């Protein structure tokens, strides 16, 4: 498509105008379709993910917040409609995935070509986008950070969430025993993943985990952060690994973007010092943040292979039109979701 033809089109988009309630701060409108600059492509979006990052942005508690107003949307799957100057390896019509971190909640997205990953033609768009940020996060944490072996026991916090459902399925597929925290209403969904559910509000959660795994667990995957990291650390077996990959914003005022993440940084520093002094019992903590690149593409390709084989099937919490973004975010805020919400422009 030529630049002149593209510029004549308009596409729907969702804009986040400020912090507050999703019903008030998410506005649907239309904008002129962007042109592909040098090194960029324009993608017509088939599916865009809704994630906890948007909850953090809505409450101005994200560590890397864009300026309001902006178009949210962490990840997408779509087709290239225009290729900019200097782009090689991509053509109009290619089906691709991208993780722009924001900007995906619209019909047409301008994005750097170097961050694109191929998407097989026969995959459902919603399931494909559910494996972009969330799936790669789960895959890389399990594959690169823990050194687990079949028969090991792991604990997945938020096992009913977008990352947690994929992580639990992958871990079970690899022969691991999975304990998954979730609210009681979601315990059947956690069992369906092959995991053992545990109420995250259980008093003295570390003792409850030790009741199921007396020696402790070999890994804890913690998306809660904050003071809850102390409990996660107490669940570990000797030689176990605590992986912190996000921070809850519950209990923080809008605008305190740095505060939810301070405990994880402090604990990392303390554990580094304790390791130097050999006081950790062989346990360790690491932090994870998903980022594009060759390793990302390789992980996504492996996930798409598992999806095509029927080994892995992402849980889709809801499929929404763009004007349903506020409802999707509301369900995330109120903890009513199992799996990943997806917008379908």
Characterization of the model:
This protein has about 350 residues and is an alpha/beta fold. The chain is built from 12 helices and 15 strands. Strands 3, 4, 5, 6, 7, 14 and 15 form a 7-stranded mixed β-sheet that branches. α6 links the parallel β8 (about 155) and β9 (about 175-180). α5 packs across α11. The protein is globular and about 65 Å long.
Brief overview:
The protein is of the alpha/beta class and 345 residues long.
Largest sheet: 7 strands, mixed
Query: Structural class of the secondary structure composition?
Result: alpha/beta
Instruction: Describe the global form.
Output: globular
Compute the average pLDDT: 90
> Helix share of residues?
25-40%
- N-to-C SSE series? HEHEEHEEEEHHEHEHEHEHEHEHEHE
Quaternary organisation of the protein chains: single chain
How would you describe this structure in keywords?
25% strand, 31% helix, alpha/beta, six-stranded parallel beta sheet, disordered N terminus, globular
SSE layout and pairings?
Blueprint (H helix, E strand, L loop, with lengths): L2 H5 L2 E7 L5 H4 E7 L7 E11 L1 H7 L17 E8 L11 E4 L9 E5 L4 E2 L6 H6 L2 H12 L8 E4 L5 H12 L3 E6 L4 H6 L3 E4 L5 H8 L4 E6 L5 H8 E9 L17 H15 L7 E4 L6 H16 L6 E5 L4 H9 L6 E4 L2
Parallel strand pairs: 8-9, 8-11, 9-10, 11-12, 12-13, 14-15
Antiparallel strand pairs: 1-2, 3-4, 3-6, 3-15, 4-5, 5-7
